[in-house]
Amino acid sequence: MNWKSVLALSLLTVPVVLADEYKIDTSHSKAAFTVKHLMVSNVRGEFSKVTGTIVYDEKNPTAIRIDATIDATTVNTSEPKRDEHLRSADFFDVAKYPTMTFKSKSAKKTANGLAVTGDFTLHGVTRQIVLNVDNSGPEVKDPWGLLRRGASATVTINRADYGLTWNKAVETGGVVVSDEVKITIDVEGTRTATAPATK
Which residues form the Lipid/polyisoprenoid-binding YceI-like domain (predicted)? Predict the structure, then answer.
């Protein structure tokens, strides 16, 4: 047996490491946000439609791959006039930018889970952010035989970094809407396939 045959045989015997791929379940996932109003109270809202995929290897969690899309047209703060304003060109301009996206690039372990770095695109602007993802817990089987896994992630952004600069000053000082926006993403996914794990 020559060296080429040995090499070919060794390649064939190398185990293929697979990770689980999950499709985000829109009906059990959402992205929520919190901003300060008049610098004295919190206004909370959410986007009800989150789609995409997550590839996760429980033995190698830092190889996680996330590709998620948030439908900006679904914004809801429980106040119709405010929601209409948020969908307008003053804020999300959903007619021009109907979605936001996050695509992961790398991850590292933290005390509570993972810090996942990736590109976040909002209002046509892409910037790198770090999602703090908590430990998702074990995979479970639902009553219909589907394998599910869930997780939560948080990040704080400055909306001005994405061109969302509408505001008004108030007489007593401060502004109507804070630039700092706290975001919490809760996702639940169903396992759909396996994929080669990233080394």
Answer: 21-190
